[in-house]
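Obj.: predict assembly geometry.
Materials: sequence records (below).
Method: joint structure prediction, all chains together.
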Amino acid sequence: MIKLDVNGTVRQVDVDPDTPLLWVIREWLGMTGTKYGCGIAQCGACTVHMDGVATRSCSVPVGSVGDAKIVTIEGLSPDGLSHPIQIAWLQCDVPQCGYCQSGQIMAAAALLKANPKPTDADIDDAMTNICRCGTYQRIREALHSAADLSGKA
Amino acid sequence: MSTTRLARRSFMVSAAVAGGGLALGWRLPSTARAQTTGSGAEVGIWAVIQPDDTTIVRIARSEMGQGTLTGLAQLVADELDCNWKFVRTEYVRPDVNFANKRAWGEMSTGGSRGIRASVDYVRKGGAAARAMLITAAAQQWAVPVAECSASDSVITHTLSGRTLRYGEVAAAAAKLPVPADVKLKTPAEWKIIGKSVKRLDTVDKLSGKQIFALDVQVPDMLNAAIAHCPVFGGTLKSFDASKIQSMPGVRQVVQVGDDAVAVVADKWYQAKTALAALPIVWDEGKNGNVNSAQIAELLKAGLDAKDAALGQQHGDVEAGLAGAAKRIDAVYGTPFLAHATMEPMNCTAKVADGKVEIWVASQNGDASLAAAAEAAGVKLSDVKVNKLHLGGGFGRRGQQDYVTQAVLIAKQIPGRPIKLIWSREEDTQHDFYRPITQCKLSGGLDADGNVVALHARLSGQSILAYLAPQRMENGVDRAAFQGWTEEEFGYKTVPNLRIDHAVRNTHVPVGFWRGVNTNQNAIYMECFIDELAHAAGKDPLAFRQAMLAKSPKHLAVLNAAAEKAGWDKALPSGVFRGISQCYGYGSYTAAVAEVSVSPKGELKIHRIVAATDPGHVVNPQQVVAQVEGSFVYGLGAVLYGEITIEKGRVAQSNFDNYPVMRLAEMPKVETVIVPSGGFWGGVGEPTIAVAGPAVLNAIFAATGKRIRTLPLSQHDLRAT
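Observations (raw structure tokens):
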């Protein structure tokens, strides 16, 4: 049995420790907001926070997680709408198909936490998740807008 | 080198069967009943109105990010005169559409047709519902209908000032006959069409609540991972299930069609892990030694072949070229490309008691239904199809191979829902690729630098020959000439013109890829026009303006892009411009790119100005989103995109060796919408065509280097 702290709840999971965290979240815990896109940490659709750091869960064996606190898109805010990133994403109408957006939002939230006022260059460096619909311009706009929102709060 | 996989061929038959229903055409049968859950009155077939005024608009097309769901709802809501804040949407289930003689029309969502091919009948649906609501209110008041008006979900008796909400009369309205003849609003009367309302499908995409097909969870569900014969046209010879039978979670190993094998397990990750350990023997067939170099030779031979399918011609191109003061020739080429939707192919299917139920992300719900029926060997009426939002489509999800496979697996494990998920590697290596083509262009200039002759010879693969051979016309694939047909082609001043196509098919499956053949054709034509302008010593914009003198709408969009970009203004040192224009999917487009190339050969795209005239605009901010997105998809392909063939199979497998554009590389895109009205053009695809040539022409301006083969990553842009 492996113990996991996900969104503030400690769960016991009977799973091979080599299983990637992504699939434990999706298939053993039944939380499907975190997406599979590539399986090799290239696309970022599976991004979660581990102790506040944006992490590509497809490439983290669940056995290596230990006591780290994991937050998934479902746990980013209590109502799923009130994190500054979610507010800004709604205002800017960012998502198109939406499949990559859980990962984009988790990456953006981690960036904002580490760097409350990111420059365009900071955003270029941190936001490496793939979006095939091409929402990048609005992601950039929404991130700046979220930084302003957080600054005022 | 020509083979077709059995599962795919049999699908074409099934699609033709389902297509028979299309002949019934559009109508509004009062018996049509959809699947709305909860309370609400069906006022006609497009709108369900609840007592609290909540208005559910039915959507037959598929939402894959392009915003069609919101746009279609705007069309219905405007004619319905309802308050936009009350509007929700629901999909019409394909089986319900089938059972009602396709009352909701075509479900196929491709070719940027979602809005423009539905606009008349969905607006009539909204107008009919409005008329029914007004009639119901007039009857309740016992006043003439002509004394009543409707606005914002409220009906007013204009003489007395009495009002009724839509929710109050919807139940009575639903019992009235649906009027066959309704008057539509004029553009001046539109209140919701043309407004930048927010998308209706955003909230659940911010919290992880949006269920994509890959997220479907059905009780008792098992999961399947699949491996295809790596060589196209090859088959499955054997596998040894005993070697993996004891691995965690494994339930069964099954053959899928003639070219694939799947492991079924409790969890998908277990199935994938066991599949990697499964000993499989493939019969690679006759294509196991084909490689990209051979395919390039095949296409090259087509460039000068005597026989070619004619796209259009007028004048005498040979004489024109022979008599020209100056002749320019160039050969261009573009590679195979994969779609790489973010959500890999997947489908959940359950086969039990002679019936099939599927859960699918599809660009064509009708075809999904037909494919499931055929794979299960049941009647079309015995299939239930649950449509889910697509995690990207771009043309890939118009094909139904993954639906067929899910049903073939589920059939072997009756009673258990099976979710088939392709790994990213299988998705990359078993796509229907954008076809590979080359193009030889020859142009003649007179002494004044005017184009007197132009010949474009395409050589390469035909999508229709592979996917829809019944649509080939005497060996001609009309779709190959996208943007170059007489109606579409803007350069009508060229006196001697020929455009033709030597069809050269390979064993690689090909299909529709966002923008389809306008992508390659615009790169060939617009870069070559730039070559001609340079040879004539003329400004690329002025050169095009003269050539478009007989095509006022093409010209207007070109001018709009140039004006916004400030074409006549000086650029910062080291920054250079390129321009391009194209017509496709009913819309006119043009772009200006500003780039710099460092001494080390590093390209930076500083700015893109993109202009489009789609006739009428339903939602400007969503048009902007589509224009921006199309540049990401198109420029990613120009910069890096390439699928190559080695030993009959695809050499690339995932985003590490099939890179796509990321945020840091995306240029700032400024969108200019210049709607001229009077027609409904597409939006999702058209602007992708002008992305590549604008940038390539700017690179020439910056470096003097003509890039004639893609991707750019293969070229050295350093100053020589």
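Conclusions so far: Chain A touches chain B through 59 residues (CB under 8 Å).
To do: check interface contacts against the pulldown list.
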